[in-house]
Write a structure and sequence with these properties.
alpha+beta; Four Helix Bundle (Hemerythrin (Met), subunit A); paralog of FGE (formylglycine-generating enzyme); four-stranded mixed β-sheet; 9 helices
Length: 455
């Protein structure tokens, strides 16, 4: 099959003008702040200032950090305006202070943090009303404003994780996600993704971050991929078969983790008699067997895949399944096409507080019938977090570059807790392979037979 080298397509028609770009940036910033308020206004006092896990910051630190990053990049860097609160820069520097020590810092109190973030927002919107959104690399297509909106939404997901770790009664609520449509079943448990080249990454998506760039050609051999993420029911069979007690399935470092911490199931699961229960945002409920498994580490995902006689997909395989259109050879923005995600496409933006059952969102499937590649759960891939050929750090090396190497594994696709502004077919997330508190699951793959699915 002949494929095109066309990069991520842009919407039809002329490029958006400055007013449209400002409206898009404004909408993204306002949506992020509305969610930040929801996550921080629903708790008080110790729940805001305390640390619910050494893996996470106090919620009040995230709140002021969001404001501080907005001041640094929009008020100072883009607007060229004097520093508003330079004395707090070091307090909210994520690289200067690890999460475990942040509760001991002289942080802004909750009301002061709210006032600070609000004051910064007012100044940032004033900058947005007059700053150029064309020409300069930092502001072209409103990039800096999009970067800040993505940053806030990423911290909103982090704060949602903190809410999951928080002990106490439930304070968040959301309707259940949609059930699968019986009239639109998945094509089967797996599909064959044909081999051949495809365009990975992007040079054209306006708000793409540095680690997604540049677009480049990748050759991927044919492979089989699950049409849905691995479910809790499937994972329970791994547990029942003694998966956590058999060293042969585990990476050596994963086996050490299992033995050291006595792991027997995903985080937040416990067994009472013959029933498996899970804790979810302050409530305890039976483990839903039809939902994608969540709160598993890379090591657990890898062990399950080995037990099942399969493997985790590579990052390139995942992106090819999510973006490549075999009929045209074109790289799409999303599995369903180029349109921004809507409620029918994917479980995003904290619209629901759990993954949707496997087989949901038929409108969001890829041309090959692979579902739920976007939303529901971040999906662990096999590979290390490495730069693409031609990578250039922008606008600061601490966003991606300092994390490159074999210490971090790549996650793709987003979760129910990530907003659409910070999730697309090229978006790359990364974390340590031991992490379990994040909203991570996985799907599995296997090699195709020789000659099967050749381009």
């Amino acid at each position: 099959m002949t494929t095109s080298s066309t990069d991520t397509p842009q919407p039809a028609g002329p490029p958006p003008g400055p007013d449209a770009l400002r409206e898009r940036a404004l909408a993204a910033l306002l949506a992020a702040r509305e969610r930040t308020a929801l996550l921080t206004d629903c708790v008080e006092g110790p729940d805001l200032t305390g640390q619910h896990s050494p893996l996470m910051s106090p919620l009040v630190w995230d709140l002021a950090h969001i404001g501080n990053q907005e001041e640094l990049w929009l008020v100072r860097a883009v607007g060229g305006r004097p520093a508003f609160r330079p004395e707090i820069d070091s307090l909210y520097d994520a690289f200067e202070h690890p999460r475990a020590e942040r509760p001991s810092l002289p942080l802004l109190a909750p009301e002061e943090a709210r006032r600070y973030a609000a004051e910064v927002r007012g100044r940032a919107l004033d900058v947005l009303s007059s700053a150029p959104v064309e020409g300069e690399r930092l502001t072209v297509s409103g990039f800096a404003f999009g970067m800040v909106a993505q940053h806030e939404q990423q911290h909103d997901e982090t704060m949602l994780i903190t809410h999951q770790l928080r002990r106490g009664p439930a304070v968040l609520d959301a309707p259940a996600p949609p059930r699968p449509d019986p009239a639109a079943p998945l094509p089967g448990p797996e599909v064959l993704v044909p081999g051949g080249p495809f365009t990975m990454g992007t040079s054209a998506e306006p708000w793409a971050l540095d680690n997604e760039r540049p677009a480049h050609r990748r050759e991927v051999a044919a492979f089989h991929l699950d049409t849905a993420p691995v479910t809790c029911g499937a994972y329970l069979r791994f547990i029942a078969d003694g998966g956590y007690g058999q060293e042969r399935w585990w990476h050596p470092a994963g086996w050490r983790m299992v033995r050291e911490h006595g792991l027997t199931a995903p985080l937040f699961w416990r067994r009472e008699g013959t029933t498996w229960l899970r804790r979810r945002f302050g409530s305890v409920e039976p483990v839903p067997e039809d939902e994608p498994v969540v709160h598993v580490s890379w090591y657990e995902a890898d062990a399950y895949a080995r037990w099942a006689g399969r493997r985790l997909p590579t990052e390139a395989e995942w992106e090819k399944a999510a973006r490549h259109d075999p009929a045209t050879g074109r790289a799409r923005r999303y599995p369903w096409g180029d349109a921004d995600p809507g409620p029918a496409h994917a479980n995003l933006g904290q619209r629901h507080l759990r993954p949707a059952p496997a087989g949901a969102y038929p409108a969001g499937r890829s041309p090959l019938g692979v579902g739920q590649l976007i939303g529901d759960v971040w999906e662990w891939t096999a590979g290390d977090f490495l730069p693409y050929p031609g990578f250039s750090a922008f606008p600061y090396r601490e966003y991606s570059q300092v994390f490159f190497g074999d210490a971090h594994k790549v996650l793709r696709g987003g979760s129910f807790g990530v907003d659409a502004v910070a999730c697309r077919g090229t978006f790359r997330n990364w974390d340590l392979p031991v992490r379990r508190q994040i909203f991570a699951g996985f799907r599995t793959a296997r090699d195709a037979a020789v000659g099967e699915g050749a381009a």
